[in-house]
Amino acid sequence: MVNxxxxxxxxxxxxxxxxxxxxxxxxxxxxxxxxxxxxFLWNGGFxxxxxxxxxxxxxxxxxxxxxxASMLWHAWVxxxxxxxxxxxxxxxxLAVQSAAIAALVxxxxxxxxxxxxxxx
Length: 120
Fold this sequence. Notes:
Distance between the termini: 67 Å
Helix content: over 70%
Oligomer: single chain
Structural class: mainly alpha
Number of strands: 0
CATH superfamily: Fumarate reductase/succinate dehydrogenase, transmembrane subunit
Radius of gyration: 20 Å
Number of domains: 1
Mean pLDDT: 90
Number of helices: 4
Largest sheet: none
């Protein structure tokens, strides 16, 4: 008799977590977009002074950081799933995923530098 509870089916079993991450990060990105659109409409557009004032706000920088972190996590889930589904050689899949992680970390660091760097 086969013990089905002990049987390990091939796959990473990320399904529900990935689905939830994709939805939550998409909502965060949508909310940020609505905030920016609302600020644009509220101000009747953006001139240099209002744009600079918006970005001078610590709260807006934190919300923007949350947006970028959500976007990068959203991207990671998508890239990882595509690589797991379509890149069959394990070494190549590892290289693709490692390159994606490296790029996403660089983007996160760049975001921090843009939001809170010397020019801010």
